[in-house]
Amino acid sequence: MDLQNHHHNSLTIGMCLSEEQVIKTVMTRPKIGRGNRITGLITELYKVERHWQVTAILVLYGLPRLFTGSILAHEMMHAWLRLNGYTCLEPDVEEGICQVMAHMWLESETMAGSISSSSSSSSSSSKRRAKSEFEKKLGAYHKLLIEKNPSRVYGAGFRAAMAVVNRYGLRRTLEHIKRAEALP
């Protein structure tokens, strides 16, 4: 994820590292000449298998919780795409859907009111505290940065992907992207 500034330079604040392994199975067979005579052996490509492995997700240290969380949501979406075979996407499609995930995460984290578990567990992970006005405003600001980003890849990509997700839902959008390698 790059953060665009007013001078159109970018600062990398998060990164998903992945590795592609291409396994080629090669078949050797005889070459048949005139009169069905074997004239030699030829080697031809028989099958190609591709496997992706996510090796790391990196995030710039020291950022506020909401900003860090949105970056992680974005980078984890890159990882999910790689691990699920979405490997030939145009940058605006891939970054756009990753920005949608960051935006959705921010939305879920900054919803008004308190969300708490109905269970009697005292575990801190089972309860969420009420959001302060500051945290709600900070979350709204980070969502606005995503929404108004002037970049063709991150900003326009997000706006196009979000429009499709709002219309068809996330699951159907991802299914279409998998088949068409593009947004509907």
Automatic annotation (TrEMBL):
Residue intervals of the Protein DA1-like domain: 4-179
Organism superkingdom: Eukaryota
Molecular function GO terms recorded: ubiquitin binding
InterPro entries: DA1-like (IPR045218), DA1-like_dom (IPR022087)
Family annotation (Pfam families): DA1-like
Protein name: Protein DA1-related 1
Lineage: Eukaryota, Viridiplantae, Streptophyta, Embryophyta, Tracheophyta
